[in-house]
Specification:
The protein has helices at residues 2-10, 24-30, 34-66, 71-88, 97-107, 109-122, 134-153, 159-178. By secondary structure, the protein is mainly alpha-helical.
Length: 183
């Protein structure tokens, strides 16, 4: 995406979408060039497979830890749910891509900000002494709720930046209030 944006700006192309489609894979396949279709399919398959495998591993590890269960069991459960969702939405899965990115922009940035605030400001040089930190979860909810509000009511602001800033600030304040020793 970055390369495309830079090329569009550098070449002063008036139309950022010259192909008239938002599905580059479909465009390449429609060209009916055999090797290009095979290459596009392999790239798509390997890329999606890699991303899905990483996400499934992380989700299974997290949920098995939270629920004190087995990671492989959760990999099967979550993999089955993922396949079912993909099968139901298979005809039009790309239609949800922008909404998916918006959801990630709401839910993920507070996590990173909370980890940074925790490791650099609140509990510097700390060891893992708990499996669960309620303060971090509450701060994540604060950051995500604020991001949801900003996404829907203040679109001129960056949802992800706001989510991270508010989540990190909420974690710092909650840690001060609850008496967690800060640096």
């Amino acid at each position: 995406m970055l390369v495309g944006g830079v090329m569009t700006a550098a070449l002063a192309v008036p139309d950022a979408n010259p192909f008239g489609v938002d599905n580059m894979f479909g465009y390449m396949h429609a060209m009916q060039i055999g090797w290009l279709s095979v290459l596009a399919f392999l790239f798509l398959y390997v890329n999606l497979g890699s991303v899905c495998a990483h996400c499934l591993y992380n989700a299974a590890t997290g949920w098995s830890r939270i629920l004190n269960s087995h990671m492989r069991l959760w990999a099967i459960i979550l993999g089955t749910i993922g396949i079912a969702v993909a099968a139901v939405a298979a005809g039009n899965v790309w239609a949800f891509f922008i909404q998916w990115l918006s959801l990630l922009g709401i839910l993920v940035p507070p996590i990173g900000a909370i980890i940074l605030v925790d490791q650099y400001l609140v509990r510097k040089d700390s060891e893992i002494d708990q499996d669960w930190r309620g303060t971090a979860f509450i701060a994540w909810v604060c950051g995500s709720a604020a991001a949801f509000y900003i996404e829907n009511n203040a679109s001129e602001w960056s949802t992800a930046v706001s989510a991270g800033m508010i989540g990190g600030l909420a974690y710092f304040i909650i840690s001060k209030i609850t008496g967690v020793k800060t640096v």
